[in-house]
UniProtKB/TrEMBL annotation:
The protein's name: DNA polymerase III subunit delta
Organism: Candidatus Merdiplasma excrementigallinarum
A Pfam family recorded for this sequence: DNA_pol3_delta
Keyword field contains Nucleotidyltransferase: yes
PANTHER family per the UniProt record, alphabetical: DNA POLYMERASE III SUBUNIT DELTA
Residue ranges of every copy of the DNA polymerase III delta N-terminal domain listed in the record: 17-129
GO biological process: DNA-templated DNA replication
Length: 329
Protein backbone atom coordinates (compact mmCIF):
# COMPACT_ATOMS: atom_id res chain seq x y z
CA UNK A 1 0.00 0.00 0.00
CA UNK A 2 2.91 2.36 0.71
CA UNK A 3 4.25 1.89 -2.82
CA UNK A 4 0.82 2.62 -4.31
CA UNK A 5 0.51 5.73 -2.17
CA UNK A 6 3.94 6.85 -3.38
CA UNK A 7 2.94 6.27 -7.03
CA UNK A 8 -0.11 8.49 -6.56
CA UNK A 9 1.83 11.23 -4.78
CA UNK A 10 4.60 11.40 -7.36
CA UNK A 11 2.38 10.79 -10.39
CA UNK A 12 4.81 8.08 -11.51
CA UNK A 13 2.14 5.48 -12.19
CA UNK A 14 2.62 1.91 -13.37
CA UNK A 15 0.89 0.45 -16.40
CA UNK A 16 -0.90 -2.30 -14.50
CA UNK A 17 -2.42 -2.44 -11.03
CA UNK A 18 -4.16 -5.26 -9.21
CA UNK A 19 -6.15 -4.26 -6.13
CA UNK A 20 -7.36 -7.16 -3.99
CA UNK A 21 -8.05 -8.10 -0.39
CA UNK A 22 -10.72 -8.13 2.30
CA UNK A 23 -11.07 -4.37 2.94
CA UNK A 24 -13.53 -3.03 0.33
CA UNK A 25 -13.25 0.53 1.65
CA UNK A 26 -9.54 0.71 0.77
CA UNK A 27 -10.06 -1.08 -2.54
CA UNK A 28 -12.71 1.44 -3.60
CA UNK A 29 -10.66 4.34 -2.28
CA UNK A 30 -7.57 3.46 -4.32
CA UNK A 31 -9.58 2.43 -7.37
CA UNK A 32 -11.16 5.88 -7.46
CA UNK A 33 -7.87 7.64 -6.77
CA UNK A 34 -6.21 5.83 -9.66
CA UNK A 35 -9.11 6.73 -11.92
CA UNK A 36 -8.90 10.39 -10.91
CA UNK A 37 -5.13 10.45 -11.45
CA UNK A 38 -5.34 8.93 -14.93
CA UNK A 39 -8.34 10.51 -16.65
CA UNK A 40 -10.53 13.59 -16.29
CA UNK A 41 -13.82 13.25 -14.42
CA UNK A 42 -15.92 13.88 -17.51
CA UNK A 43 -13.82 11.68 -19.81
CA UNK A 44 -15.88 8.61 -20.70
CA UNK A 45 -14.30 8.09 -24.11
CA UNK A 46 -10.97 6.95 -22.70
CA UNK A 47 -12.45 4.81 -19.92
CA UNK A 48 -13.50 1.20 -20.45
CA UNK A 49 -15.06 -0.71 -17.56
CA UNK A 50 -15.57 -4.49 -17.59
CA UNK A 51 -17.21 -6.42 -14.77
CA UNK A 52 -18.07 -10.06 -14.21
CA UNK A 53 -16.77 -13.47 -15.15
CA UNK A 54 -17.72 -13.60 -18.84
CA UNK A 55 -15.51 -10.83 -20.20
CA UNK A 56 -14.18 -11.53 -23.74
CA UNK A 57 -10.42 -11.14 -23.50
CA UNK A 58 -9.98 -10.30 -27.24
CA UNK A 59 -12.33 -7.31 -26.75
CA UNK A 60 -10.26 -6.11 -23.80
CA UNK A 61 -7.07 -6.36 -25.84
CA UNK A 62 -8.70 -4.49 -28.76
CA UNK A 63 -9.61 -1.63 -26.43
CA UNK A 64 -6.13 -1.64 -24.91
CA UNK A 65 -4.67 -1.23 -28.40
CA UNK A 66 -6.89 1.80 -29.11
CA UNK A 67 -5.05 5.10 -28.80
CA UNK A 68 -6.51 7.55 -26.26
CA UNK A 69 -8.62 10.33 -27.79
CA UNK A 70 -7.11 13.75 -27.02
CA UNK A 71 -5.79 12.49 -23.69
CA UNK A 72 -2.61 11.09 -22.20
CA UNK A 73 -4.06 7.76 -21.06
CA UNK A 74 -6.63 5.12 -21.84
CA UNK A 75 -7.84 3.45 -18.64
CA UNK A 76 -9.26 -0.07 -18.64
CA UNK A 77 -10.82 -1.21 -15.36
CA UNK A 78 -11.67 -4.89 -14.87
CA UNK A 79 -13.60 -5.93 -11.75
CA UNK A 80 -14.42 -9.34 -10.28
CA UNK A 81 -13.36 -11.14 -13.43
CA UNK A 82 -12.09 -14.34 -11.84
CA UNK A 83 -9.04 -14.11 -14.12
CA UNK A 84 -6.70 -14.41 -11.16
CA UNK A 85 -8.07 -17.76 -10.01
CA UNK A 86 -6.44 -19.37 -13.01
CA UNK A 87 -3.55 -18.57 -15.29
CA UNK A 88 -5.34 -16.46 -17.99
CA UNK A 89 -2.38 -16.82 -20.38
CA UNK A 90 -3.81 -14.50 -23.09
CA UNK A 91 -3.73 -11.43 -20.86
CA UNK A 92 -0.55 -12.52 -19.09
CA UNK A 93 1.25 -12.72 -22.44
CA UNK A 94 -0.27 -9.44 -23.64
CA UNK A 95 0.65 -7.18 -20.71
CA UNK A 96 4.36 -6.78 -21.61
CA UNK A 97 3.38 -5.60 -25.12
CA UNK A 98 0.61 -3.20 -24.09
CA UNK A 99 0.91 0.36 -25.50
CA UNK A 100 2.47 2.77 -22.98
CA UNK A 101 -0.60 5.03 -23.09
CA UNK A 102 -2.86 2.24 -21.77
CA UNK A 103 -3.27 1.50 -18.06
CA UNK A 104 -5.13 -1.54 -16.72
CA UNK A 105 -6.57 -1.70 -13.21
CA UNK A 106 -7.85 -5.04 -11.94
CA UNK A 107 -10.08 -5.23 -8.86
CA UNK A 108 -10.52 -8.72 -7.44
CA UNK A 109 -11.65 -10.37 -4.22
CA UNK A 110 -9.58 -13.53 -4.69
CA UNK A 111 -6.27 -14.16 -6.40
CA UNK A 112 -3.96 -17.11 -6.89
CA UNK A 113 -0.44 -15.77 -6.45
CA UNK A 114 0.94 -18.79 -8.28
CA UNK A 115 -0.96 -17.89 -11.46
CA UNK A 116 0.68 -16.60 -14.61
CA UNK A 117 -1.43 -13.42 -14.73
CA UNK A 118 -0.61 -12.49 -11.13
CA UNK A 119 3.09 -12.91 -11.85
CA UNK A 120 2.75 -10.82 -15.02
CA UNK A 121 1.08 -8.00 -13.08
CA UNK A 122 3.82 -8.14 -10.44
CA UNK A 123 6.41 -7.90 -13.20
CA UNK A 124 4.76 -5.08 -15.18
CA UNK A 125 3.11 -3.11 -12.38
CA UNK A 126 1.86 -3.52 -8.83
CA UNK A 127 -0.26 -6.12 -7.06
CA UNK A 128 -1.58 -4.43 -3.92
CA UNK A 129 -3.27 -6.40 -1.14
CA UNK A 130 -5.64 -4.21 0.87
CA UNK A 131 -6.60 -5.90 4.12
CA UNK A 132 -8.30 -5.03 7.40
CA UNK A 133 -6.17 -2.56 9.34
CA UNK A 134 -4.91 -3.00 12.90
CA UNK A 135 -6.02 -1.02 15.93
CA UNK A 136 -3.13 1.44 15.77
CA UNK A 137 -3.77 2.34 12.12
CA UNK A 138 -7.53 2.60 12.62
CA UNK A 139 -7.12 4.80 15.68
CA UNK A 140 -4.82 7.19 13.82
CA UNK A 141 -7.17 7.26 10.82
CA UNK A 142 -10.27 7.93 12.95
CA UNK A 143 -8.53 10.73 14.86
CA UNK A 144 -7.50 12.26 11.53
CA UNK A 145 -11.07 12.17 10.20
CA UNK A 146 -12.38 13.78 13.39
CA UNK A 147 -9.65 16.43 13.36
CA UNK A 148 -10.79 17.52 9.88
CA UNK A 149 -14.27 18.07 11.34
CA UNK A 150 -12.91 19.88 14.41
CA UNK A 151 -14.26 17.17 16.72
CA UNK A 152 -12.42 15.49 19.60
CA UNK A 153 -13.11 12.11 21.21
CA UNK A 154 -12.26 10.72 24.63
CA UNK A 155 -10.09 7.62 24.93
CA UNK A 156 -12.94 5.59 26.45
CA UNK A 157 -15.32 6.72 23.71
CA UNK A 158 -12.84 5.73 21.00
CA UNK A 159 -12.39 2.24 22.45
CA UNK A 160 -16.15 1.76 22.79
CA UNK A 161 -16.59 3.04 19.23
CA UNK A 162 -14.14 0.45 17.88
CA UNK A 163 -15.86 -2.26 19.91
CA UNK A 164 -19.12 -1.28 18.22
CA UNK A 165 -17.74 -1.01 14.69
CA UNK A 166 -14.93 -3.53 14.55
CA UNK A 167 -12.32 -3.03 11.83
CA UNK A 168 -14.79 -2.58 8.95
CA UNK A 169 -13.74 0.82 7.56
CA UNK A 170 -16.97 1.40 5.64
CA UNK A 171 -18.92 0.83 8.85
CA UNK A 172 -16.55 3.13 10.75
CA UNK A 173 -17.20 5.97 8.28
CA UNK A 174 -20.98 5.51 8.50
CA UNK A 175 -20.98 5.45 12.30
CA UNK A 176 -18.59 8.43 12.49
CA UNK A 177 -20.91 10.47 10.26
CA UNK A 178 -23.78 9.71 12.65
CA UNK A 179 -21.69 10.66 15.68
CA UNK A 180 -20.44 13.92 14.17
CA UNK A 181 -24.00 14.94 13.33
CA UNK A 182 -25.18 13.94 16.82
CA UNK A 183 -22.59 16.08 18.66
CA UNK A 184 -22.84 19.04 16.27
CA UNK A 185 -22.08 22.24 18.19
CA UNK A 186 -20.16 20.43 20.91
CA UNK A 187 -16.39 20.01 21.12
CA UNK A 188 -16.11 16.29 21.65
CA UNK A 189 -17.57 12.79 21.57
CA UNK A 190 -18.10 10.91 24.83
CA UNK A 191 -18.74 7.24 25.55
CA UNK A 192 -22.36 8.19 26.28
CA UNK A 193 -22.66 9.58 22.74
CA UNK A 194 -21.36 6.32 21.29
CA UNK A 195 -23.83 4.35 23.42
CA UNK A 196 -26.67 6.56 22.21
CA UNK A 197 -25.90 6.58 18.50
CA UNK A 198 -23.74 3.67 17.32
CA UNK A 199 -25.36 0.41 16.29
CA UNK A 200 -24.36 -2.73 18.18
CA UNK A 201 -22.89 -5.36 15.86
CA UNK A 202 -24.14 -8.93 15.87
CA UNK A 203 -20.64 -9.97 16.96
CA UNK A 204 -20.97 -7.82 20.09
CA UNK A 205 -24.20 -9.57 21.02
CA UNK A 206 -22.53 -12.95 20.48
CA UNK A 207 -19.69 -11.90 22.79
CA UNK A 208 -22.20 -10.81 25.44
CA UNK A 209 -24.14 -14.05 24.99
CA UNK A 210 -21.05 -16.17 25.61
CA UNK A 211 -20.24 -14.03 28.64
CA UNK A 212 -23.72 -14.76 29.97
CA UNK A 213 -23.26 -18.48 29.22
CA UNK A 214 -19.90 -18.50 31.01
CA UNK A 215 -21.37 -16.71 34.03
CA UNK A 216 -24.34 -19.13 34.02
CA UNK A 217 -26.81 -16.30 33.42
CA UNK A 218 -29.13 -18.42 31.37
CA UNK A 219 -32.01 -15.94 31.18
CA UNK A 220 -29.71 -13.20 29.87
CA UNK A 221 -28.12 -15.55 27.30
CA UNK A 222 -31.54 -16.56 25.96
CA UNK A 223 -32.69 -12.92 25.89
CA UNK A 224 -29.70 -12.06 23.69
CA UNK A 225 -30.53 -15.01 21.44
CA UNK A 226 -34.11 -13.74 21.12
CA UNK A 227 -32.77 -10.26 20.29
CA UNK A 228 -30.72 -11.69 17.43
CA UNK A 229 -33.68 -13.66 16.11
CA UNK A 230 -35.80 -10.49 16.28
CA UNK A 231 -33.13 -8.82 14.12
CA UNK A 232 -33.73 -11.62 11.57
CA UNK A 233 -30.35 -13.22 12.11
CA UNK A 234 -30.61 -16.84 10.86
CA UNK A 235 -30.01 -19.40 13.66
CA UNK A 236 -27.23 -21.11 11.69
CA UNK A 237 -25.39 -17.80 11.28
CA UNK A 238 -25.72 -17.24 15.04
CA UNK A 239 -24.36 -20.76 15.58
CA UNK A 240 -21.42 -20.06 13.24
CA UNK A 241 -20.58 -16.88 15.17
CA UNK A 242 -20.78 -18.72 18.50
CA UNK A 243 -18.41 -21.37 17.12
CA UNK A 244 -16.06 -18.69 15.80
CA UNK A 245 -15.95 -17.01 19.21
CA UNK A 246 -15.21 -20.29 21.00
CA UNK A 247 -12.41 -21.00 18.51
CA UNK A 248 -11.04 -17.47 18.95
CA UNK A 249 -11.03 -17.87 22.74
CA UNK A 250 -9.20 -21.17 22.34
CA UNK A 251 -6.61 -19.57 20.06
CA UNK A 252 -6.08 -16.57 22.36
CA UNK A 253 -5.82 -18.78 25.44
CA UNK A 254 -3.31 -21.06 23.71
CA UNK A 255 -1.17 -18.11 22.55
CA UNK A 256 -1.16 -16.64 26.06
CA UNK A 257 -0.08 -20.03 27.46
CA UNK A 258 2.82 -20.00 24.98
CA UNK A 259 3.96 -16.69 26.46
CA UNK A 260 2.95 -14.23 23.74
CA UNK A 261 2.06 -10.70 24.82
CA UNK A 262 -1.10 -8.82 23.84
CA UNK A 263 0.34 -7.25 20.68
CA UNK A 264 1.74 -10.56 19.46
CA UNK A 265 -1.56 -12.31 20.14
CA UNK A 266 -3.43 -9.58 18.23
CA UNK A 267 -1.09 -9.98 15.26
CA UNK A 268 -1.26 -13.78 15.18
CA UNK A 269 -5.02 -13.94 15.71
CA UNK A 270 -5.73 -11.09 13.28
CA UNK A 271 -7.74 -9.03 15.79
CA UNK A 272 -7.38 -5.66 17.50
CA UNK A 273 -5.56 -5.28 20.81
CA UNK A 274 -8.57 -4.32 22.90
CA UNK A 275 -10.41 -7.40 21.58
CA UNK A 276 -7.52 -9.52 22.85
CA UNK A 277 -7.99 -8.01 26.31
CA UNK A 278 -11.70 -8.79 26.24
CA UNK A 279 -11.11 -12.32 24.96
CA UNK A 280 -8.49 -13.05 27.61
CA UNK A 281 -10.96 -12.02 30.31
CA UNK A 282 -13.70 -14.15 28.79
CA UNK A 283 -11.37 -17.12 28.28
CA UNK A 284 -10.65 -17.25 32.02
CA UNK A 285 -14.06 -18.87 32.47
CA UNK A 286 -13.04 -21.86 30.34
CA UNK A 287 -10.26 -24.42 30.15
CA UNK A 288 -8.82 -25.21 26.72
CA UNK A 289 -10.63 -28.56 26.82
CA UNK A 290 -13.92 -26.77 27.61
CA UNK A 291 -13.48 -24.50 24.60
CA UNK A 292 -12.49 -27.36 22.33
CA UNK A 293 -15.58 -29.36 23.36
CA UNK A 294 -17.83 -26.33 22.90
CA UNK A 295 -16.50 -25.70 19.39
CA UNK A 296 -16.95 -29.39 18.52
CA UNK A 297 -20.50 -29.32 19.84
CA UNK A 298 -21.25 -26.34 17.59
CA UNK A 299 -20.15 -28.45 14.62
CA UNK A 300 -22.29 -31.38 15.80
CA UNK A 301 -25.31 -29.10 16.21
CA UNK A 302 -24.86 -27.71 12.70
CA UNK A 303 -24.68 -31.24 11.30
CA UNK A 304 -27.84 -32.26 13.20
CA UNK A 305 -29.69 -29.25 11.79
CA UNK A 306 -28.51 -29.77 8.22
CA UNK A 307 -29.44 -33.48 8.28
CA UNK A 308 -32.91 -32.68 9.58
CA UNK A 309 -32.50 -34.31 12.99
CA UNK A 310 -32.96 -30.98 14.78
CA UNK A 311 -34.63 -27.65 14.04
CA UNK A 312 -32.20 -24.76 13.60
CA UNK A 313 -33.77 -22.45 16.19
CA UNK A 314 -34.14 -25.24 18.77
CA UNK A 315 -30.65 -26.58 18.11
CA UNK A 316 -28.97 -23.28 18.96
CA UNK A 317 -31.24 -22.76 21.96
CA UNK A 318 -30.35 -26.20 23.38
CA UNK A 319 -26.66 -25.40 23.00
CA UNK A 320 -27.09 -22.09 24.85
CA UNK A 321 -29.11 -23.77 27.61
CA UNK A 322 -26.51 -26.50 28.05
CA UNK A 323 -23.56 -24.13 28.41
CA UNK A 324 -25.42 -21.65 30.60
CA UNK A 325 -26.79 -24.21 33.07
CA UNK A 326 -25.16 -24.19 36.55
CA UNK A 327 -22.60 -26.96 36.89
CA UNK A 328 -22.39 -27.50 33.12
CA UNK A 329 -19.55 -26.69 30.73
Amino acid sequence: MKNLEQDLKTGNLKQVYLLYGDEPYLINLYKNRLKKALIADEDTINLNIYEGKSIPIPAVIDQAETMPFFAEHRLIMLENTGFFKGSCPELADYLPTMPPETVMVFVESEVDKRGKLYKAVKSQGRAVELTHQNEKVLTSWILGLLQKEGVKITRSALQLFLERTGDDMERIVRELDKLIAYVWGREGITAEDVEAVCTVRTENKIFDMINAMAEKKQKRALELYDDLLALREPPLRILALIARQFNLLLQVKDLRRQGFDQNEIASRAGIMGFIVRSCLRQAEYFSEDDLRRAAEECVATEEAVKTGRLGDRLGVELLIVKYSSPGKK
